[in-house]
């Protein structure tokens, strides 16, 4: 990965400033068409806990944005639209993205 999270951006307080409803609205507005075209397959991979498929979809998002935070937010927006998505599914997807970052970080 070419754009890992910097030490300054790695922390709960910083996440409170980044992952705001306003920023999610910006991401949703900017990437809405992209998300709508792909949300079903992304969400199905989460529902089935298909890590390989989910990671391939996440890589597609990352290639588009070249930004970890925006990519993560795009996936979050997609999951928010998934009616059957409970907390455990959201957490599984988020944990999978974080594990992917850890495994592929250039630190």
**Strand share of the residues?**
under 5%
Which structural class is indicated by helix and strand composition? Answer: mainly alpha
- Arithmetic mean of pLDDT: 82
Q: What Rg is obtained from the alpha carbons, in whole angstroms?
A: 13 Å
Please tell me the total number of domains.
Answer: 1
Number of helices, counting only DSSP H or I runs of 4 residues or more: 5
How many β-strand stretches? 0
Dominant shape: globular
What is the makeup of the main sheet?
A: none
- First-last Cα distance: 10 Å
Order of helices and strands: HHHHH
Q: Give the helix proportion (percent range).
A: over 70%
Unreliably modeled segments = none
Description:
- The protein is mainly α.
- The chain has one domain.
- It is built from 5 helices and no strands.
- It has helices at 12-18, 21-47, 51-65, 68-80, 87-104.
- The mean pLDDT is 82.
Q: What's the gist of this structure?
A:
By secondary structure, this protein is mainly alpha-helical. It has five helices and no strands.
